[in-house]
Amino acid sequence: MKTMAIIVRDDGYDKILTPLAFAYFAASEGVQVDMLFVNWAVLALTEDGARALKIDGAHADQDALVRERVAAAGLPNDINTLLKALKETGNVNFYACSLAATLFGVDEDNIIPEATGITGAAWFINDKADKADHCQYF
Amino acid sequence: MNKPKSNVTLDTSGKSCPMPMVDINRAIHELNSGEILEFIATDQGTKMDIPSWCERTGNQLLSSSEDNNTFRYFILKS
């Protein structure tokens, strides 16, 4: 596998960990990973949004415990630092879906510098997802 | 069986997926061809991950062992 495309929709802290962990592993092995953040997940590409991510729903009361265990597992336990670590591999690109950016308030002023930019979903699907060796949706 | 003599030891004890694999990818990059990495892990996932990774990357798994939930692998860099 040389290329991987990942579309991330869910913005719960726990739900966003899995695609980031998979991307980290793949990137460490030299796979080019392109990630499109859609819907509420686009907020992870802002410092405030990443900081605000929490575990939702039935497991909300375990947020602190999960963060403690994530750190023990060796991963950065805040999402912004994890995004930076992925970017430092040199093999990961982050894209904000333009629709999601419009709907949820992400723009050139608040998007993190690690993100490549705000892009159309059509471009990502055709130029990244369709051409990738492997595609994942979260 | 004697343990192979390693050039470098990487101990990922306590870490969980994906970090042992992230770390081994970094470590193997620092080795020269023909050198041996001793890789220690407590993540159960490495039992499947390491043989698969060796096959995929062309590095040779010389031996693997388990002792009290600690896994030890000796890998020859191709």
Q: What does this entry look like structurally?
A:
The complex is a heterodimer of chains A (138) and B (78). Chain A is α/β, with parallel strands linked by helices and 138 residues long. Chain A is built from six helices and five strands, in the order βαβαααβαβαβ. Chain A has helices at 13-28, 47-52, 63-72, 79-88, 98-104, 121-129, and strands spanning 3-8, 32-37, 92-97, 115-119, 134-137. In chain A, strands 4-3-2-1-5 form a five-stranded parallel β-sheet, sandwiched between helices. In chain A, strand 1 (3-8), helix 1 and strand 2 form a beta-alpha-beta unit. Chain A is globular, with a radius of gyration of 14 Å. The mean pLDDT of chain B is 96. In chain B, a hairpin with a 2-residue loop joins strand 3 (60-67) and strand 4. A four-stranded mixed β-sheet of chain B has the order 1-2-4-3, with helices on one face. The longest helix of chain B is centred in the N-terminal third of the chain and has 12 residues, at 19-30. Chain B has 78 residues and is α+β, with helices and mostly antiparallel strands. Chain B contains two helices and four strands; from the N terminus they run βαβαββ. Chain B is 31% helix and 32% strand.
